[in-house]
Write a structure and sequence with these properties.
By secondary structure, this protein is mainly β. The protein contains two helices and nine strands, in the order αββββββαβββ. The radius of gyration is 20 Å and the shape is globular. The two termini are 32 Å apart.
Length: 150
Amino acid sequence: MWGRASALRPPFRAAPGAGPKPGCRPEGLPHNNMARLSTHVLDTARGKPAAGVEVRVSILEGGSSRRLKAAITNSDGRTDEPLLSGDRLTVGVYELIFSVGAYFRSAGEKLSDPPFLDEVAIRFGLSDPEGNYHVPLLIAPHGYSTYRGS
């Protein structure tokens, strides 16, 4: 049915120059000029958000790391507030460490000793001090994936 209906309707094409200008948000959406770092953890083995995962964020400076914050994911797999936020974030190399082994043990998963994945560390560069960085993590007992989200 969907394929048939779409076949009867020509594809939508916006007029040249139409649409929001770069940097503008569509009407009705909140405008937030705050720079931030956030995450979202999804348990791909169970097909649901990963609640109760400890996330630690650090910045790497001169060969050592300095912990900035720790948080626990909520029932949606997100932290209750951004991991970092402000008018500007410090440009540099950051690391997020996710305690996935503890999460899987608490979910009743039988893990090897030591577990294949206990802590997942994601090291990334933050180059835009006014940018929004969203770093999702998709986890399973024997694998994970990440990307720069929006």
